[in-house]
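In this section we walk through a basic example: taking a raw amino acid sequence and producing a predicted 3D structure, encoded as discrete structure tokens. The instruction is simple. Fold the sequence below.
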Amino acid sequence: MAKRQKKVLTDNDVKKKAVKLVISHLKRKITQNYMGSELLREWIEEMDKLLEKEEFELSEYIEMRRNLNDIIERTMDEEIRYKLRDSWYSFGRALDKKVKRM
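The resulting token sequence is shown next.
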């Protein structure tokens, strides 16, 4: 039986995986409708499309983070704004992730 070779993770693989985790947590946090929630839902749809792409272009993810910040600034509900802001920070940390070196 042939041995399966482990995929060598790159920094971009680790970043993409971390961003997926942040987005899944964001989806669970935001369950209620609020004024402007359609903007966030549209942003999440765009983010899902970006995550489906095979390649990882950091500039695209940075642009999506900027777009999320715009949505946060337009959100009137203070509690929702804080939840979104936490996700925004987590998104930034995810983009800074690197492969653990041994």
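Looking at the output, two observations stand out. DSSP finds four helices and no strands in the chain. Residues 11-29 form the longest helix (19 residues). In the next section we compare this with other chains.
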